[in-house]
What we know:
The chain is α/β, with parallel strands linked by helices. The chain folds into three domains: 3-109, Udp-n-acetylmuramoylalanyl-d-glutamate--2,6- Diaminopimelate Ligase, Chain: A, domain 1; 113-333, UDP-N-acetylmuramoyl-L-alanine:D-glutamate ligase, CATH 3.40.1190.10; 342-495, Alpha-Beta Complex (Protein-Tyrosine Phosphatase, Chain A). Helix content is 32%, strand content 23%. The strands form five sheets. An eleven-stranded mixed sheet has the order 12-11-10-13-9-14-15-16-17-18-19, with helices on both faces. It has a six-stranded mixed sheet with strand order 20-21-25-22-23-24, with helices on both faces. Strands 3-8-7-6-5 form a five-stranded mixed sheet. A hairpin with a 2-residue loop joins strand 18 (285-290) and strand 19. Helix 3 packs parallel to helix 5. It starts with a strand and ends with a helix.
Amino acid sequence: MKLKMFGKGSQVLLLQELLKDWPCTISGDRFRVSVTGITESSINVKPGFIFVARKGEKEDGDLYIEEALQAGAVAIVIEKPSNIAVPMSVPVILVPDCRHFLSHASAVFFGNPSEKMTIIGVTGTNGKTTVSHFIGQLLKGLGVRVAVIGTMGIYIDGLRIGYNIPQMTTLPAEFLHPLLKECLDRGVTHVVLEASSLGLSTFRLDHCEIDVGILLNVGADHYDEHGGKQAYVNAKTKLLKIAKQVIVNRDDNICVDMAKSSSGPVLYFGTHTDSDVCLDVQGNKSFMAWDEESGELDLLIPGAYNHMNAVAAISALRSLSYTLAEILPHTPLLQLPEGRMQQILLGGVMVVIDYAHTPDALEAVLCSLALTSNGRLITVFGCGGERDKGKRSEMGEIAVLYSSGVIVTSDNPRNENPLAIIADIMEGFGEGCVAVQAEPDRNLAINKAIASARVGDIVLIAGKGHEKTQHIAAEIIPFSDEKVATQALMAKMDKV
């Protein structure tokens, strides 16, 4: 491969190297052109870039070909004939699928960095972020230089690094592969990726070599975006087909069924006695076993479900040939990521901030808090707009089942009417439920909940976790549950 480096982070590759062995039809009188980058966004085009004009959800990439040419694009990739006039000096490449080509070309352009590292992909409706960070913490404790890439950004050896990328759980290929190369250049040997259903279904990981794929669970989320539950399941199953080795939750029957599609060996974890990595809970203690090894799982983090998250992470290290004797001494040091069962205690009132935004996740958090609460449990939550309307009433039913009081509010309503979302949620409460109130303003909802809390009460603020913005109509405004809750607690203390 003719790969040249010109200064830090810059490189050039001949177009024919990117198209080698790739099905395509080329028009134009120039083919031997140097490429300096590849993108599907016309605003990111720089001189020497390939512009991939794929069809989007709302607009066709053809509309931006002229803009890309003006910015210096040296080649255009399309998946259907276009009427847009392109100079003969600029090759137009017709491919079967633009997204698939973008995945391939991005990997090749940056030298296929995933092939030079150990890549672990984590998918599941709930727990991807927690398990990914647990794996990263355990590997770091064992002296491995590791990166974690996902919902919360990029972390190398536990420290967040700044990198100009979109805020997405699974990065598009044009951002993922240069990031992997950057990690490789920094001496990273292991990378843990969150693999979302949308990322998997849109080819973002197709040319990223996955050594270990982990399937945590399957619940209600993103059904609308995929066109139904089965399409959602199929998207997550894709990780099992591309990973060399697979780790699957034995306690989830849907996951067990999905594991039949795995192209590699399967390692099961769970509480079932036939799990390869088995969790045995005895009273207040948890024990782990695999093969001839066993030992106590010592965790200092809340939530019974987090024991399963820890077991999933430990199973990943098991697949990398680490022993229990090597791993278990590091489990007491595991810490939850920001916005996952994050606790703020002031004036005898405990506020818990959690990302739970699905029925299963909300129930797991509420069940855990209900078992530890000596006072009332007050829940503040909402549901995102333009997402899975079917889960809203179910989450309402779960919230009122475990809580002494519920305030239904806005999450990220996007372009949907917040009051309509709240109405959908409140269908799950049943008629005459006096423990529920609606407050569309999330700031006011949090303040009301904390103002009503007494010593010994727990206030759960669910749905946004670590997020620092709120998406309302066309605006994305600064908003932090943690900041609002802390200010409300301090104001409450001032009144005492």
